[in-house]
Amino acid sequence: MSEYTREAAKKLVEKMTLEEKMSQMLFNSPAIERLGIPEYNWWNEALHGVARAGVATVFPQAIGLAASFDRNLLYKIGDVVSTEGRAKYNEFSRRGDRGIYKGLTFWAPNVNIFRDPRWGRGHETFGEDPFLTGELGVSFIKGMQGEDPDHLKAAACAKHFAVHSGPEALRHRFDAKVSKHDLYDTYLYAFKRCVKDGGVEAVMGAYNRVNGEPACGSKTLLRDILREEWGFEGHVVSDCWAVKDFHENHHVTDSPAESVALAVGNGCDLNCGCTYEFLGEAYEKNLIKEEMITEAVERLMDIRIRLGMFEEYPSPHEHLGYEKVECKEHVELALEAAKRSMVLLKNKNGILPLQKGKYKTIAVIGPNADSRDALLGNYVGTSSQYITPLEGIREYVGDEAEVLYAQGCHLYKDKVEFLAEEKDRFAEALIMAERADLVILCLGLDATIEGEEGDAGNEYASGDKPELKLPGLQQELLEQAAGMGKPVILLLLAGSAMDLSWADGHVDAILDVWYPGARGGRAIAQVLFGEDSPGGKLPVTFYRDTKGLPDFEDYSMAKRTYRYAKGNILYPFGYGLSYSQILYKDAKVDRVVRDVSENAIIEATAVNNGKYTVYESVQVYIKHMDAEDYEPSWQLKKTETVTLQPGEEKKAVFTLTPRDFAIITEEGKCVVRPGEYALSIGGGQPDEVSEKLTGRKVDVFQIIKTGEEKETEY
């Protein structure tokens, strides 16, 4: 907030009656005509493109964007999202359309930690690592909001604060119990980065309780941490109808008025839902003071002023019009993002990239081969054109190959046609595989079964996955098609880690394309045939199965994610192959740091020894050699994406601060300990699984930090 807008907001709110102020705390805020305040609906979505408001550029789902590991790409995408959002707002408002999904307050990004691969909404996040989530979240926010905090292009919102990642079916009554170590080490880190480094304007609370307190009314989260520790000055919005859960499901209050008092009293300024209709009753019963209401509305008016919603303080972005929506440049960026997101998990004998003309007959098989749903993920806009994998491959090869198609099976049911027998499309798939020189299997999930409770079907646990196996008959289809003796490439279209153990041992190549966006099929074809090399790295761990995972409802990080897991890993976090061979040389690091409060420097040169241009994500990991049992092992601390032309080499240099070496104690303190640290730099983790998969070791160094233990800023 600037002094000018803060004062302007204060003066505007001073002119409001109590009833008028209370009316502005609901997401569908009515006009106050006597004060020149237009009606405004705060609810808008922009997870990977402007959502639910007609035509927009549809980017890959957030988890796919995370696989790029590239904060600069996320900044560009955030900028496109706010440009299209602002263009829509300008045009809609000019025609008097101020309804839901038409505003400038976007409830994105989702920076929750994807702690468990069974969580249905994990594909909305940037993965399982706090550092990567924070890096990408900050960049997306800065791209969305623009460079001038007093004239935002749009307002971003970090959600869902905090300790929120399933189960979906229990979220309205669940109590996430978490230690102070896990709270500060894992669940809060990205949110703090979004607040302190990203300047995010809004924070949305979660549905669940956290250690007994409902997140949207939590003194610990909203007052003690968000406002006091972090100095957050923006507004807090509840998740939709979350305040109603206080009395109906959490049973921490006995009435709507008491729920309102708990939320407002702890700093929840805006209610997505209807419970704040009881603000008047809460005030009359002396459960809340008018000063609390005034403070909340001042924050809400301040951001509306900075967004240019009043004539006295116009926006420099008022000129943006509909010609910017899904324009050529934005569509090209979405295609680039799709290609940058793809992770090559296996490539036996270099079968990829495919040579155009080598295979005269290609069979494209599977429930996701010609599915628009499998392109999109959730919280999505409408594209003017969709290109499925089948359409993209057919478009790319033209007359140089015959492209056959069979659905093979339903996404998760045992038959496609209602009155048919089980496996009604199997025979056709095998006929096509038999006729083909090459089989491309398109398997996985889509957001109709993997997603948010209420959006996704109940067949899969209200959007969550009961297990990691391919659903329905897909595994059997995979095995039978692979048994035909033809070269097989598996395209995985899904928003989360799956059990690909069998596929890893029996197919020739596996390419994880996530939910690649509206024109994802074109990007898939271009990567398959070598116009571009896949550039993604895994933002989540792929486990062999769920046997080593703790109970889904257990929020302890022990045995979860690459930082705490103990074995059973098929594909590690940070892993991804390329069509080129990327080598590292001249790696070095400061060997001794004289004091724990000093920085250290690590560097290496990445070399492209292949014939494809690549985007390489250089990754730096650290671990304390004498870590306590509750502390993580290797942790990603720095990353930089470099573009390497064939034969090109580039040096990457990183400054490691005391915070990079720090650990969070069991008491929640952030401290740097003296002792020996292991550092690595390269194209992935320095673990045995990564080494086996890539055939290369990552450079690992030891340094000694001397001096005395010191507390550092979290």
Secondary-structure blueprint:
Layout: H1 3-14, H2 18-23, E1 28-29, E2 40-41, H3 62-66, H4 71-94, H5 130-145, E3 157-161, E4 175-176, H6 180-187, H7 189-196, E5 202-205, E6 209-210, E7 213-214, H8 219-229, E8 235-237, H9 242-250, H10 256-265, H11 279-284, H12 290-306, H13 328-341, E9 343-347, E10 361-365, H14 373-376, H15 389-397, E11 402-406, H16 426-435, E12 438-444, H17 474-482, E13 488-493, H18 501-506, E14 509-512, H19 520-528, E15 542-543, H20 561-564, E16 569-571, E17 582-589, E18 592-593, E19 600-608, E20 614-624, E21 635-644, E22 649-656, H21 658-661, E23 663-664, E24 670-672, E25 675-682, H22 688-694, E26 699-705, E27 710-711
Parallel strand pairs: 3-5, 4-6, 5-8, 10-11, 10-12, 12-13, 13-14, 18-26
Antiparallel strand pairs: 1-2, 6-7, 9-14, 15-16, 17-19, 19-22, 20-21, 20-25, 23-24, 24-27, 25-26
Offer a few descriptive terms:
single chain; 714 residues; alpha/beta; TIM Barrel; Rossmann fold; Immunoglobulin-like; 3 domains; five-stranded mixed sheet; 22 helices; 27 strands; globular
